[in-house]
Every structure is written in C-alpha cells, then in structure tokens.
Specification:
This protein has helices at about 35, 45-65, 85-100, 110-120, 165-175, 180-190, 215-225, 240-265, 280-290, 310-325; strands at about 1-5, 10-20, 25-30, 75-80, 105-110, 130-135, 140-150, 150-155, 270-275, 295-300. With about 350 residues, it is of the alpha/beta class. The chain has a five-stranded mixed beta sheet with strand order 3-2-1-4-5, with helices on both faces. The protein has a five-stranded mixed beta sheet with strand order 8-7-6-9-10, with helices on both faces. The relative contact order is 0.19. The longest helix has 26 residues, at about 240-265. The chain folds into two domains: about 1-115 and about 305-325, Nucleotidyltransferase, domain 5, CATH 3.30.420.40; about 125-300, Nucleotidyltransferase, domain 5 (2-Layer Sandwich). The chain is about 40% helix and about 20% strand. The two termini are about 25 Å apart. It has ten helices and ten strands.
C-alpha cells in the first residue's frame, strides 16, 4: 500500500510517500524557521499563509522523488490534531479535496502519536511492547504506556510549558536565535552545568507530570534580576550565559530521565521509544545512555525527529488497516487533544 502523508501542524510543510507503513520512498520538508526567526517563535498567521504556498509543491516533490503518480496512491494520511488551527486546516482541507477528486480514502492522524511511531520506522526491527513512549517536542511533553501501535495510556504530561517550548523561551532570555533548542544545546556544550542550581517543578497530583514554567522563570530572574520581565536588560556577564544554558539543560533533562526511568520501572515496561524535535539533542541521548538501563532505547532518525510527512503516512497505514474505511469529509481539525 502506498500512502501519501501530509503534515502542516505548525511551521513545517511536509509530504511523504511511504510503502506499507515502513519503507520511506520520499520525505519532503519545507521549513519556515527563517520566516519566524525575527519573532522568536512561530507566528500562526504567517505559518498558515506559508502552508498555502508550499503544500502543493511539497506533494508534487514527494511524488516525483518517490517516482509515483497520484493515481498510484492508495491512501492519504494527514495530521489532523493537535496543532495550530489555521495550519491544520490547510493540510486537512487539501487532503479532503484530493480524496474527493481522486476517489481515494483518507485518514486523520494524531500528530503526537505519529512522533512516537517515527522511532519505529526505517529499520527491519521487531517492535517491543509494552513500552514507554517519551514525547518531547515544542508543543508536548508526555510519558505514555505503549501497549501496541494505536493503544496507549497517558502516564504523565506537562501542566504548563512543553520541554521544547521551554528551550525556546530560555533561548530568548539568553538572546539566542530561533529555533532555540539547537542554540541552547550549542551554547551549553561550552558551559559548566554545575555553575547554577536550577530545579524543575514537581506536580503533587501526579509525580509523572512535568512543570518547566518555574525553571524558565528562575532562568529569567538569574539573567535579568528578581521579578524581572523578558524585556528587562541583562544583569549578568555575557560569559555566564553558557553556564546558565548548560545548567538549565542539565536540570530539564535530569527531570525527564528520572521520571522516565521511574515510569518504566513501576509499569514494568520493556523499552523506550522517543519522539519529537528535542530528541535531536545529543546531550540528552548521552545522558540516557549513561544510565546503563536494562531497557532498549529507540530514537527516531534525525530526518524523522522534526515534523514530517513520513511519520504521518507510516502511522496512517496501520490506522487504516484496522478500520478499512475513509474518514468522512466533515471530520474537523482539533487544535488540542485530551486523550489518545
């Protein structure tokens, strides 16, 4: 089965062709990072307009790279939730139009779930269940128990900032460019992670939930003074920024690692599958590896870490196999999700 995957949840316009859920024939991504750089984050209206310009060229390039035609496509999978509502609508309405015009089935996909599936793609490996799913992206930080593809139980989530979002905000505090994650990691490599004592939040209601808002605020006050705001002048030496970046990164990652290991132990899980843009951070991978866990760790390949169409197409194959029917044309885009 050839599946066309379409992804427009945020600031990447992506399309891919995947065969039988795993063999990636093409994976085209048009990034908008250069458009949003001057804003220090994603400007939703600008993102939507860029998707309009890029969605058809992305699909055309994906087909060309895979050497297939639209007539040969068996299924269209699209990220329909969660994400920026304007961006979601571009991908979803394009998919509906293609489905109607070509008389091809389509299926809406949970973008967060697809990030976890990305770690299962690309290799001929046996999947291990039950496992822990760790989603760490710009919009989400979640721990999930994976029983099978499509069967999950949420163990913990963030009550405020997602991990990727907190990296972007700390980057702005440190006068680094967007996207902030890679810039913080680059600066942190030069710093002493023990120089500043930061602490991630603990959520009494659920010890596996995350809270990075207080950590971000502590960084702000350290850089700009107590009770300061983001537009206040910096009071530290420029030399100290690398130590703050390193200390912040270490604190955030240690919190994630501690909760991930505890969740895997309590729920008797056999492996960990990672998903989301923060998985590109090499320091995080090194910190996990140093734990010498009796668990197999599955990281997505770099081109499958950020938002992409291949993970949407791959998961779409499995979702469609279970229902064998197309979504209806009145299916709605959902900017948030409360469950899987």
């Amino acid at each position: 089965m050839l599946v066309l995957g379409i992804e427009t949840t945020c600031d990447e316009t992506a399309a891919a062709i995947v065969e039988d859920g795993n063999k990636i024939l093409s994976n085209i991504i048009f990034s908008q990072a250069h458009l949003h750089k001057k804003f220090g984050g994603v400007f939703p209206e600008l993102a939507s307009r860029s998707h309009i310009d890029k969605i058809l060229p992305a699909i055309d390039e994906a087909l060309k790279a895979a050497k297939v035609s639209l007539d040969e496509i068996d299924l269209i999978a699209v990220a329909s939730r969660p994400g920026l509502i304007g961006s979601l609508l571009i991908g979803l309405n394009t998919t509906k139009a293609l489905s109607f015009a070509l008389d091809k089935p389509f299926i809406g996909i949970n973008h967060v779930e697809a990030h976890l599936y990305a770690a299962m793609m690309g290799d001929d490996k046996d999947l291990i269940f039950p496992s822990l799913g760790v989603v760490i992206s710009g919009g989400h930080t979640m721990l999930l128990k994976i029983l099978d593809i499509g069967k999950y139980k949420i163990i913990g989530t963030t009550i405020d900032d997602a991990m990727g979002e907190s990296f972007d905000k700390v980057a702005r505090i440190l006068d680094l460019s967007y996207p902030g994650g890679p810039e913080v990691e680059k600066l942190a490599k030069k710093g002493d992670s023990s120089k500043y004592k930061f602490k991630a939040g603990n959520v009494k209601k659920n010890p596996f939930d995350f809270s990075f808002s207080g950590l971000k605020t502590k960084v702000l006050y350290t850089v700009k003074g107590q009770k300061s705001k983001k537009d206040f002048p910096t009071i530290i030496k420029n030399e100290d920024k690398k130590h703050i970046a390193a200390s912040f990164q270490k604190c955030a990652f240690e919190d994630l690692i501690k909760k991930s290991i505890k969740a895997a132990e309590i729920h008797k899980l056999k492996a960990i599958y990672f998903g989301g843009g923060v998985t590109c951070n090499n320091s995080l991978k090194e910190m996990f590896e140093k734990q010498n866990l009796d668990l197999k760790l599955f990281w997505p390949k770099k081109d499958l870490s950020l938002d992409n169409g291949a993970m949407i197409a791959g998961l779409g194959f499995h979702k469609y196999k279970k229902v064998l029917k197309s979504d209806k044309l009145d299916v709605l885009a959902q900017p948030t999700i409360s469950s899987f």
